[in-house]
């Protein structure tokens, strides 16, 4: 049996040590990245593998062959892609004595972090799941099919997701699906799912759409520390944040691009690199500013030099992993500096490949010294200007849809097909 002894988490690029377990008769292990050979490993089948100068979503494949070149087995793992190597499964069980549907949830999380929450929803509404071995689906008045979805937080920004259909006349939900974020043009609408034939494709041919979601709005704010001082000045007289009861289901978190570990690291993740990150906040739009201004004690994080580009790449990874409507907003203050391993262009290119739109705002009355690196087109120096920027951001998010296409695809491989109209990929 061939398997990776090295499981890759977070964002990786450059030279990385990879180890593979292979059968005794193995002479050589070839490593492929997105179909291209990047290394030939000899016993003990470990060594340096060049993953490229910048992170890209990819599939890493190890192929073991014997002395005559015969293949003995292969294995694969996703890198730089949400839900890498995490698996979850929902299985329908016999109905209970009241005729209610029952499901059982199992999962496998490859991270070494303790597993987090388990969230189960029915048509987007959370239902109790205290016992994953017996999830009772509440009876509803709905006559049509319903979608049961489970999300297991595996830690280190890795999630396992499973879905099954509950109800009559429900077409089979494929075991592998890929979420594609798109944005509607003004006044445009999407047809019913069965009318999306020819709208999405890869190089291998057209893709079949199986569902469309328009629930959930996720925003990750990358807030450079000097922008916090400006935000606190702007919102010093505003009331504190309140929890959201809005049907839009807005959730956001923020990330300080400071304390990013030792220079030279080509493996980026929240914990390993020491970035200060908040939890996901469920809030109303009017509470975003006060929450950002008071939600974290920056203290020692005012160190000279920030890993802003690295943090933007991680923020995009976090936003894409939740498979909801999403965006990353970079907030730059008057003292912004960047000492990242990645360039601004590389970070922007990476999150565009994940279908995550990026917005850059300069906070304060004076311009940020690195505005040009991020194509800043908006400056906010008052609470009213910040809230106007949020209102525009909200409109952009509300035009997004998550289209589920059948099969497991790397995000950058899915493109619009020849019949698509009135939409564009969310980037």
Backbone CA Rg: 23 Å
Using DSSP, what is the number of strands?
Answer: 30
Oligomeric nature of the chains: single chain
- Mean pLDDT value: 85
Main sheet attributes: strand count, strand direction, barrel closure = 7 strands, mixed
**Number of helices, where a helix is a run of at least 4 consecutive DSSP H or I residues:** 5
Structure description:
By secondary structure, the protein is mostly beta strands. The chain folds into three domains: 3-79, Sandwich (Immunoglobulin-like), CATH 2.60.40; 81-173, Immunoglobulin-like (Sandwich); 217-400, Rossmann fold, CATH 3.40.50.410. The protein is built from five helices and 30 strands. The strands form eight sheets. Strands 20, 21, 23, 24, 25, 26 and 27 form a seven-stranded mixed beta sheet that branches. Helix 1 crosses helix 2 and helix 3 packs parallel to helix 4 (344-353). The longest helix is centred in the C-terminal third of the chain and has 16 residues, at 383-398. The chain is globular and about 70 Å long. It starts with a strand and ends with a strand. The mean pLDDT is 85.
